[in-house]
Each structure stands twice: as C-alpha cells, then as structure tokens.
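Entry — protein

Goal — fold tokens:
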Amino acid sequence: MRRYLVVDDNAAFAENLAEIFMDAGAEVTVADSGQMALAAAATTRFDVLVSDMRMPSMGGAELVQRIRRIDPGLPAIVVSAYTAEDDLEAARHEGLLAVLPKPVPLAQMLELVRAARRNGLVALVEDDFDVADSVTEALRSYGFSAVTAHTVLETEHLGIRPFCGVVDLRVPGGADGEAMRRLAAKFPGLPMIVITAHIDQPPPLPSAAILIKPFDTEALVQAVERLHA
C-alpha cells in the first residue's frame, strides 16, 4: 500500500484530499504545518508528499527542502491558490514532480501520486527551454521529477543529488562537454545520458546513452527507466 503525506493548514482541504487518496487505496497522514510534517517524515517512509505552498511559518518550497534532508528520495507535489513567481521559482529549484493550482485537478493529481517514483530525480541540463519543458513533461508522466539547468554555471546550483543526469553537450557558459564535467565533479559516479545535435563531438566522459537531436522522447524515458531500475 502506498503512503502519502498531505500538508496544509486548511484542515478541511487536507482531510478532503486525504479521503480521496484513501478511497483510491492509499494510506494517508495529514499534517497541518511544516513542523508536523517533518516529524512525520522522521518516523515514516512516504511514497509522495503533497503540500500547500503558502502556510504560516514554513511554506511548501522550504518544507520540501527541509524534508529531503530527512528523506532525500521523497517525490513532492506542491499546490497553491495564490503563488508568486518567486515561490514558483523556489519550488522548481527543488525538483518538484508538479506545481498544481487550487482547486486541485483531481484526475491529474491522482495520476501523479500513483506514478510518483521514490529516488526519481533527474538533473536535466538543456539550454533550449522548449526541449527542456518537453523532456520534463515526458519524465513527469512516468513518475520522474526533474531539476533543470540551462547553462554551465547553473549546474553548480543544483542541490539534492539526482539519480541520473540528462545533459546537452553544448550549453552556454563553457566549452562543449563542460556541463557534463561539472555534474560529474559535483555528483561523483552520477550516470549520465547525453543529448546532442553535434554527432562529431564525442562526450568528454563515459555515458549511459547518447541520443542525437531531434531524439525520440520515449527512447530518452526508456533510458532513464533503465538507470532507475
């Protein structure tokens, strides 16, 4: 049985969402604050965290950051009725599975929590925003979350360790392959899948797979799945 942690200072909303999850066959713990959620995560292994973005004393993005110090592999979804762009950016940096609006789209929520994979964070380095969005959405549909860097420098700011990297060899801020080198230095032993439009430029380090642009997104997801397995 899957276990979900629901965190919201609105007790009626949290209990209603918990009932929906339980009707779908899950076991649910409800917390009305970030501190209560941290205490629950210290004693129970959850399959997914669903948290409100704006709560007194500790918001959703901060909760995700702190709870992953306890359980680094926990996938997270944040929901909010009113979200400022700074809040969204902070949430994205945490490699969330999704940021959903209130009222919650229940069909999408149920699909996401069922598919969510523990230890399923992918580091995606890609300067083309459309490609990055497409890959992130494809990964999400299979239960993987992604934290994205668009330049060589941004790879330095990736926080929690991913289980694999998907890296374009040519991104702004350094020579070809530099982003791959930076990821390898930051996360020793990290397996990486290379995506590139430049077939004449070999990767500077061993890779788990090389996909030539334009690549089949399904083939990329399959390569990620093999690494996760």
User: Anything to note?
Assistant: The beta strands are 3-7, 27-31, 48-52, 76-80, 98-101, 121-125, 145-149, 164-168, 192-196, 209-212. The longest strand covers residues 3-7. DSSP finds eight helices and ten strands in the chain.
